[in-house]
UniProtKB/TrEMBL annotation:
UniProt xrefs under PANTHER family: BLR1237 PROTEIN, TRICARBOXYLATE-BINDING PROTEIN
Name of the featured protein: Tripartite tricarboxylate transporter substrate binding protein
Span of the signal peptide: 1-22
Pfam families linked to this entry: TctC
Organism: Roseobacter sinensis
SUPFAM superfamilies xrefs: Periplasmic binding protein-like II
Amino acid sequence: MTFKTLGAICALSLGLAGAAMAEYPERPINMVIPYGAGGATDISARTIAEPLGAAVGKPLVMANVTGAGGATGSVAVQNANADGYTMLFARVGSHSVNPAMKATLPYTLEDFRFVTVYEINPFACVVSANSDLASMEDVLARAQAGELSFSSSGVGSGPHLAAAMVLDAFGLEDAANAATHIPQQGGGAAATAVLNGTADFLCTNSSALAGFVANGQMRALMVTTAEPVAGFDAPTAASLGHPELEQMVGWTGIAGPAGLPDDVAAKWAEWMEAAAADADFVEKMEARGSIIRVMAPEEANDFIQTQYETFRKLVDDLGMRIEG
């Protein structure tokens, strides 16, 4: 075989490999939602599924893989092939709060490559509509009496940290332990616990609560934004004298395993720009208090790292690091 022939074969092989890569995706893509039905992550994922599927051009197989405050589904993606066919709807709890709080978490941020963050949410603090807690002052008084309980989507989750942070800001001593924490399996279950009276209080993403507030089942006592949130009819943290609570925000993004190829990440960036521009998606998410903002892969990774560092400091300040 001549060098000329060998060169032609190599060139053909490289061309075929490039063509094969350019065909991604060739089959359906598995999309893991690491929290249960009805929570903020599930709502966001299923709302964007239709426009995102249209942009991708292949079916998206949506699956709730729940447990351990988002860790179970995250590990499933961490251990998947880095080929773009198993992706994760990551959330502030699974990839900012969990890494900040849990010393034995089976993954780190370096185990994932984020292709986007597309949604930012304020937090809202709510009670059941028939609760006798009418203000944050009432919440604080009950907590100081040792009689307040709050729900969350799991130990070490965003709502767990949020409630402790809010109570600490309002002056409750030993806020991480003074109120009774009632962890649930997911955001939907955390809301249900407040509705059925199992827990008094919940601080979580506005997107998971908007429907309950709109239909009169829940009453918002505060939102963690500089400006009021449409539909919540509640004072802002800043208006109550606690602008530091504005750093408590949620987000939703999409990630693959570490090692996800550059060209695959670039395709996801294009798809997300198209999907998040869908008017119906934007209308539905904004009605839930969400801010739609699509970040490119590099910006998303930088944003999440900053969020992690912010929450890690809060965890250290509140003494909430979980070592076991």
